[in-house]
Specification:
188 residues; single chain; mainly alpha
């Protein structure tokens, strides 16, 4: 009987390990590409902003705000907001769509980080930003896989979601927040 109880746990561990390995491979692939690619040093597009850095800072801020919506709706769906009561039906779709929108908004930022700037190593802030950016997309990939693969421990998807959130906050703080607090730079 003990071996029957162990089988689902072993399968869950194997699935979780595969998900984490997949996310790590995404992060490493992005880092390797950014490290070997010769940075173009110019934007592909600016979406109407005055420059690439302005576009990246504002889009990263929008993505971060959408992840605040993600956090709030996740806490609401899981009954972790003290005074909110049970979540209405629209909270689930809002959670999914705000996450998808955050991902889509982050893509032009990532493309320009990888293609135009490459893997930065000029300062500790830039190294931290580059590393966190690669890890963010790895964690995102792992979370998306975790949502679709059955049998994971109940804590796995919330932990992956929290990791995605924490990494995007770190990416935002080492880029957009840094940019917005610099004197003399145009903000739009």
């Amino acid at each position: 009987m003990g071996s029957h109880a162990q089988a689902p746990r072993q399968a869950a561990r194997a699935t979780l390990a595969a998900i984490l390995l997949s996310g790590a491979l995404v992060a490493v692939a992005l880092g390797v590409y950014a490290g070997v690619h010769a940075p173009a040093g110019r934007p592909l597009f600016t979406l109407g902003f005055s420059g690439m850095l302005q576009m990246k800072a504002w889009l990263a801020t929008v993505a971060a705000l959408l992840l605040v919506v993600q956090l709030t709706t996740a806490l609401w769906m899981w009954g972790r907001l003290p005074a909110a009561g049970s979540a209405p039906e629209w909270v689930g779709p809002l959670h999914r769509y705000s996450g998808a929108a955050a991902f889509v908004v982050s893509l032009p930022v990532a493309v320009h980080c990888l293609w135009a700037l490459g893997l930065g190593s000029a300062t500790p802030r830039v190294v931290l930003h580059s590393t966190a950016g690669c890890l963010f997309y790895g964690a995102y990939a792992a979370k998306m896989l975790g949502l679709r693969l059955p049998g994971l421990p109940g804590w796995a998807v919330p932990a992956l979601g929290g990791t995605v959130l924490a990494l995007l906050v770190l990416v935002w703080a080492t880029s957009a927040l840094w940019f917005f607090t610099r004197a003399g730079l145009p903000l739009i």
